[in-house]
Amino acid sequence: MEHKKSCLLIVCKEFKPHILMFLAQVGCALVYFITEASFNHGMSPFLYVTYRYFVAALVMFPFAYFLERKQRPKLTFALFMEIFVLSLIGISAPINMYFASLQYTSPTLVASMFNIVASLTFIIAVALRYEALDIGDPRGIAKVIGTLISLGGVMTMTLYKGPPMRNLWGPLIHIQGKNGGTEENWLKGSLLAVTSCVLLSVWYIMQASTLKRYPAQLSLTSWMCFVGAVQSAVFTAIVQHHPSAWFIGFNIDLWSTLYGGIVVSGLVIYVQLWCTEKKGPVFVTMTTPLCTVLVAILAYFVFGEKLYLGSMIGACFVIVGLYLLLWGKEGDQQVHTITKDTSNCNGEDPVELCKI
């Protein structure tokens, strides 16, 4: 008995990053259905984003204050304005668009769209010469082909809805249906999701640059969550003219806000940072498509959501393209690690071969 217990502990310790990232993706998958239920209950997506990131800022602040007290640089006005722009293109604008698109499409499509962020980031990085691309290398070819396949999958999801797949049984958990299911709403929601992903891709590029001047990840995250929440609050105040809409009771609206702020924007970020330190960024990114698979399974078998042929075909293309791109990127990561170790042995600074 003791031997089995000891073996189990060893396995859990060995696969701790894998288990944590799986649980993180489960947490991310559930947020689509919780927020969909909240939006169908009547909560504004803009108000949800505002409250969610205020909660996230409160959750992240103690960790940032105590853990980065010595390494956090002075916040100048120029640096604050840079954080303001980062918050605008990385939180308030794209996240509002992202969740607004959930009202017009489906959780499966919205979750699938997020997988193209890596491909779009790669395109922008190559255009700005942040990313090296060697067409003569198999991994370089994999990057290009993977990017093209992912973009083709997105075009399929956006322009081709297709017939719905027949449900095998009724929903085990009921979510009040959304109002719009027309082709026009589907296209509108898809375009909102794509625009959100483009902004997030630009944000990742800018964030890498800002971290060089403000190398405090938790503090930067806290600032962006807070500033993004304020920006979203201003926008919500413009479009939401009824003060009563700002009050939420002890219902799905409150629970979705707390869940999104504490679990997704708090605990999941911490898990991703820990796993990045232990296993590297490629490992963390490789688990991203798992969220799409979990959303599709839950949507179809548990919540009785309609799965459309176009979404399923497009999602498959996006995931295949993403893994091709990540396989190519993994080669860069290995070269970067070897170069860094060699440079440290020679007493020289490492050469930055991969800036993403």
UniProtKB/TrEMBL annotation:
User: Which species is this UniProt entry from?
Assistant: Arachis duranensis (Wild peanut)
Location comes to:
Membrane
**Annotated Gene Ontology cellular component terms:** membrane
Task: Provide the leader sequence positions.
Answer: none
Q: Which UniProt keywords apply?
A: Membrane, Transmembrane, Transmembrane helix
Chain segments annotated as transmembrane:
20-39, 45-67, 79-100, 106-128, 140-160, 186-206, 218-239, 245-270, 282-301, 307-326
Q: How does it sit in the membrane?
A: Multi-pass membrane protein
Q: What is the protein's major site of localization?
A: membrane
Designated name of the protein: WAT1-related protein
Q: By its UniProt entry, which SUPFAM superfamilies does this protein fall under? A: Multidrug resistance efflux transporter EmrE (SSF103481)
Q: Where is the EamA domain?
A: 18-157, 188-326
Query: Per UniProt, what is one GO molecular function of this protein?
Result: transmembrane transporter activity
Q: Which family does it belong to?
A: Belongs to the drug/metabolite transporter (DMT) superfamily. Plant drug/metabolite exporter (P-DME) (TC 2.A.7.4) family.
Annotated PANTHER family:
WAT1-RELATED PROTEIN
